[in-house]
Fold this protein.
Amino acid sequence: MSRIRLCFLGTPEFAVTSLKALLDDEHFEVVGVVTQPDRPAGRKLQLTPSPVKVLAISRGLKVLSPESLKQNELIIDSIRLWNAEVAVVVAFGQILTEDFMKIFNFGAVNIHGSILPRWRGAAPIQRALEAGDKESGVTLQKIVKKLDAGDILGIRRLSLDENINAQELHDQLALLGADLLRVELMDYLRGNLAGIPQDESQVTVAKKIDKREAEIQWGKTASEIHNKVRAFVMGPGTFTLWQGKKLKIHKTKVVSISAQTKDVGCIAEIKDSSFVIQCGTGHLEILEVQPESRNRMSSEDFLKGQSLKTGAVFQ
């Protein structure tokens, strides 16, 4: 079988892993890459190319970076000239039109960071951890007009422990997604694999994260707060107020799930290298923090510069 000509659409690091896998696979020929435009980044807000664009240019690939593919005939015509047989989409960041997908004989497929139909939408990794899911994974699906609703071509599953954070899960799922492209994508293109429709009764939605969700509500259970902290590691993070200033909470551990010995938000215990806060139900140990305008640090280092006392209140 001749090499499959494909168009790759992706933007962040999650997509880089898949693009590398396709470039290194002798069964595929990546004829062009579409990614988001350069965006301001860093303190100086310098225009910075996406991770996918950096890799694509380093490999000598054709790259397009449109603000939108919708009603962009010049870009669409350029992609059409690539004569790709299939489009592979991994965290691209734009909605594709049906007309765009018709360019390719095999349509378009997508790697999604959840076990569909659970967690369709913008933030599947974060919402899975926030909900305390015990299992996650990635799905290879056909792209259809309805968001993340296409037939499933393959799934890779991963058991979750209670302390894995979003960045760690992100990195593991990126590898599993690349494996789906090496195996199930090729089986689909060879005609050896048919898609399986999703069970609409099992759909949950991973809505986009709002920065207003970042403030910790100590009236929640210790497990709920812990899950939010580890889920929001990739952004926007979580914070509480200490002496009128924001204190970001980067890493926590559930100490108990039922005990209540202090008022909500109070320091219940101060240890040598951490401190414990009373939640609505249970206790949460704070392991890593970041005071306002300072670098991330261990709770042990934070305690050295603070005169925390049992009973003090975080809001």
